[in-house]
Specification:
This protein is about 55% helix and about 15% strand. It is built from 13 helices and six strands. α1 (about 5-50) crosses α3, α5 crosses α8 (about 155-165) and α9 (about 195-205) crosses α10.
Length: about 350
């Protein structure tokens, strides 16, 4: 048996050591982050107990934070700005039980989470960070895109409570649907008219961002997926497979307002996939038409007798108005509470 050349074995050794070093550094960073978060929680606790004598009802003392920041920076260097100390205090206020902190989230994650004033929203984004292993950058993007509000507006009061406590759980087709979908990552100016094929290609060019917007569980299958019936070719713009729901997800893009012919066409695609593409253990496919605009009444009538899982949502090329969505959610919740009282 021929032995591997010494030089080849040596390069293999260098590669193995490199992998071990990378793993060790990653583990060290995680441990440092966990220790840092725990330390900052204790700092926050000390501030609260000193300033308020343990009572969270007392008014926050700004003068103390200014003085404390100055003295700590002089003695221990960077990391003790007034804003950072405020976040340490908030960490203790919002997570009074130390064990509720996650060692998987960095201090930067917690700073972003602590800037969310709504408890339900903060809890939702925290759960999503943990379940989907979001980076801080991904967390910021989803916050700016108002993911919580967009999902919550399609839920009832009890489902919104569950959403904040557990994060987004995917058990049925409706759980993967948003309205609107946000494609600000394409960097296309809002006023620019873009054709369907150009939009499709742009989404494929930034597939990683598109998958993040679609949500957990999507695996890309193909673009312009061909189906042939009676020697006529039909093409679904984008086809995915959802690993959690165990089904195909077909997406068609419409640069204008969706019409009933678009809905009928998607229904045809779904029937084709059920008969020709589904394997024995696949569940019924889901169809999503993403349009620049839609008429709710038309969609209601056009989909009324369709047994397939077919959804129509809008897309937009810019970040939503966060305040407007938050207000819509507040009104939505208020209306549900009024309905419960009737």
């Amino acid at each position: 048996m021929t032995k591997k050349p010494v030089e080849t074995s040596y390069h293999s050794l260098v590669g193995d050591i490199g992998k071990l070093l990378e793993q060790g550094r990653t583990q060290a960073i995680k441990k440092v982050n966990a220790i840092l978060v725990d330390t900052y929680w204790q700092v926050g606790k000390s501030i609260v107990e000193f300033e308020q004598a343990g009572s969270l009802k007392a008014e926050y003392g700004k003068e103390l934070m200014v003085r404390l920041s100055k003295d700590l920076k002089n003695k221990y260097g960077k990391g003790f700005s007034r804003s950072n100390l405020q976040y340490m205090r908030l960490l203790y206020v919002h997570y009074p039980k130390r064990q509720t902190l996650s060692g998987k989230l960095s201090w930067s994650h917690y700073v972003e989470l602590l800037s969310i004033s709504d408890d339900a929203g903060r809890s939702f984004y925290e759960k999503q960070c943990l379940s989907d292993t979001w980076s801080v950058r991904e967390l910021k993007r989803q916050r700016n895109a108002s993911l919580f509000e967009r999902i919550a507006l399609s839920r009832d009061k009890n489902q919104i409570a569950a959403l904040s406590q557990k994060g987004q759980t995917i058990e049925a087709s409706k759980d993967i649907i948003k309205d609107p979908y946000v494609f600000e990552f394409l960097d296309i100016p809002e006023h620019v008219q873009i054709g369907e094929r150009s939009l499709e290609n742009a989404l494929i060019d930034k597939l990683g961002h598109f998958l993040l917007e679609l949500g957990k569980g999507f695996a890309f299958i193909g673009q312009q997926y061909r189906m042939t019936l009676d020697n006529t070719h039909y093409y679904a713009d984008l086809v995915f497979y959802h690993r959690i729901l165990k089904c195909f997800v077909l997406i068609d893009l419409k640069s204008g307002k969706v019409n009933h012919q678009d809905i009928g066409q998607m229904n045809l695609y779904l029937n084709y996939f059920k008969r020709e593409e589904n394997m024995a253990d696949d569940k019924e496919p889901i169809g999503i038409i993403l349009a620049a605009d839609k008429d709710e009444i038309l969609v209601e009538y056009a989909t009324g007798s369709i047994s397939n899982q077919l959804f129509v949502s809008k897309y937009q090329l810019y970040l939503p108005d966060k305040q407007l969505l938050e207000e819509k959610l507040r009104l939505f919740m208020k209306q549900q509470e009024m309905n419960d009282e009737i």
